[in-house]
Write a structure and sequence with these properties.
Oligomer: single chain
Strand content: 35-45%
Radius of gyration: 20 Å
CATH topology of the largest domain: Jelly Rolls
CATH class of the largest domain: Mainly Beta
Distance between the termini: 49 Å
Structural class: mainly beta
Number of helices: 3
Helix content: 10-25%
Shape: globular
CATH superfamily of the largest domain: Acetamidase/Formamidase-like domains
Length: 307
């Protein structure tokens, strides 16, 4: 077993087997990756909303890699164990016109920079949130000969999955489509609620240590993962709003709008910050799907509310 290091100085924004790997490793090896935030490094710790307005979307989700894994062949499964994720002391969140679940309610730009102290994010004077860092994008290279795939997309190869449970001590399983697998990673997050309703999580640069192995002749469904953090603690107190509608989208919007009003009324938050908080900590869940109506719930963990 060997350990390697990859900086984020050289990144890519498409999945393509034409991209030359930056590193070749063996199964069992460990790689420490430096990864950029979802803006591709365009939003800085001292940025203002003007930087968000000038953001070049062609640099979004810039990835570190690819990594070539020896003996990885099409049909194999790449096993990626997440050993450690370390923050760099800050992150950002915000929204912009035309994006997010409630784009019609928030048709303007808004940016919030947040600092990390002892693994806690001070969102406001009475709200502190424990960090739960993860990588929004992890994937292997798909075997596409005609057109490359952008790194904003997700698919059978993994990609921009934004699964908040892919934290430390989790193992991710990805399919191998091309020789060497050509694994890449990026889109660092410090925190995200299921749904990521305002279109951003707490975006942040990260250092990530991953261990790679191969499974051959397996029938494991992929992409898939193993984790111990899916279920909430039995002692965690939640408040939830409910939305109903003729579609999942309509029900979700009603549930989130109701939660925003609750946060405004009870925790001295502006409407904008309440929306951001929903994207960072509120878990949007599908409660019911039937031929007549859909029900969605928005779960808020009370342990972050320090009033």
């Amino acid at each position: 077993m060997a350990e390697y290091y990859l900086s984020d100085e050289k990144t890519h924004v498409i999945w393509s087997k034409q991209i030359k790997p930056l590193l070749t490793i063996n199964p069992g090896d460990i790689v420490k990756f430096e990864i950029q935030d979802g803006s591709g490094g365009q939003i800085k710790r001292n940025s203002t909303v003007e930087d968000l307005k000038r953001e070049n979307y062609e640099k979004v989700n810039s990835l570190t890699g690819p990594v070539y894994v020896e003996n990885a062949e099409p049909g194999d499964v790449l096993k990626v164990k997440i050993l450690r994720i370390k923050d760099k002391g800050w992150g950002w969140t915000g929204f912009l016109p035309g994006y997010g679940l409630l784009a019609e309610d928030f048709p303007y730009y808004y940016l919030k920079i947040l600092n990390v102290e002892k693994k806690l994010i001070k969102f406001s004077k009475n709200i502190k949130i424990p960090t739960r860092p993860f990588c929004g994008v992890m994937g292997t290279c798909p075997n596409r000969s005609v057109k490359a795939i952008d790194t904003i997309s997700a698919g059978e190869f993994g990609g921009n999955m934004d699964v908040k449970y892919l934290t430390e001590k989790t193992t991710l399983y990805l399919p191998v489509f091309v020789k060497g697998a050509l694994f890449s990673v990026g889109d660092g997050h410090l925190l995200q609620g299921d749904g990521e309703v305002c279109w951003t999580a707490l975006e942040a640069p990260l250092s990530v240590k991953l261990k790679f192995d191969l499974e051959k002749n397996t029938k494991r469904p992929v992409p898939s993962f193993e984790t111990k953090r899916i279920r909430n603690s039995k002692n965690e107190d939640n408040f939830a709003t409910i939305g109903y509608g003729s579609s999942i989208e309509q029900a979700s919007k009603i549930a989130v709008r109701s939660m925003i009003k609750y946060l405004e009324s009870n925790y001295s938050l502006t409407r904008e910050d309440a929306y951001l908080l929903c994207s960072l900590v509120v878990d949007l869940k599908i409660a019911s799907v039937n031929p007549y109506s859909y029900t969605a719930t928005a779960f808020l963990p009370r342990n972050i509310l320090l009033r």
